[in-house]
Structure formats: structure tokens, C-alpha cells
Write a structure and sequence with these properties.
three-stranded antiparallel sheet; 3 helices; 5 strands; elongated; binds zinc ion
Length: about 90
């Protein structure tokens, strides 16, 4: 039996309530290998073909709203900016 660094179930638990920063779709566990070539599951988005810790739907929607006025800034960056503001200034 293969020993996964992070099992599909552990990864799925980390995906709960989190969405892709780029498209807003729910994150899912994707089977891959880590840097030491050990099998593992990482959170990611198949539509965007990326591995990502994602963001919450609330932060994604805030970033998407900002994107209407700041379309020159990528959704990835806007999600990062929203997260920064939330962590630094809105400790809710
Ligand atoms: Zn996506």
C-alpha cells in the first residue's frame, strides 16, 4: 500500500470552504508527488490547472468586486491584498 504524505481525506478536509483565487471554484484534492517524489495530495483547481491553498468565498467575492475597478491587478494578487488587509486590520 502506498504511503501518502498527505492523504486524499486530509487534503479534502483542508479544501472545505476554500475556493480557487482565479475562478472561484471549490478546491479539490489532486494526486501528485512532492519534491522528494513521494505520492501526496495537494489542494488545487483543475479548471485553472494550479495547486493552491485558495481563499474563502467571502475573500474571493471581495477580490472580484475590487477587480471591476482594478482590472489591471490579477485576481491572484487581489485575493492576496484582501487577505493582507483582513489579517492586518480586520481581525474578525
Ligand atoms: Zn480555478
Amino acid at each position: 500500500m502506498i504511503k501518502y504524505q498527505i492523504t486524499k481525506e486530509e487534503c479534502a478536509n483542508r479544501c472545505v470552504g476554500r475556493v480557487c483565487c482565479r475562478c472561484g471554484e471549490p478546491l479539490i484534492p489532486i494526486e501528485t508527488v512532492d519534491n522528494s517524489n513521494n505520492p501526496t495530495f495537494w489542494a488545487g483547481c483543475l479548471s485553472c490547472s494550479i495547486f493552491s491553498p485558495g481563499t474563502t468565498m467571502k475573500m474571493y467575492n471581495t477580490a472580484k468586486e475590487l477587480h471591476k475597478n482594478y482590472s489591471n491587478i490579477s485576481m491572484d494578487d487581489l485575493c492576496g491584498i484582501v487577505r493582507y488587509i483582513r489579517v492586518r486590520f480586520w481581525k474578525d
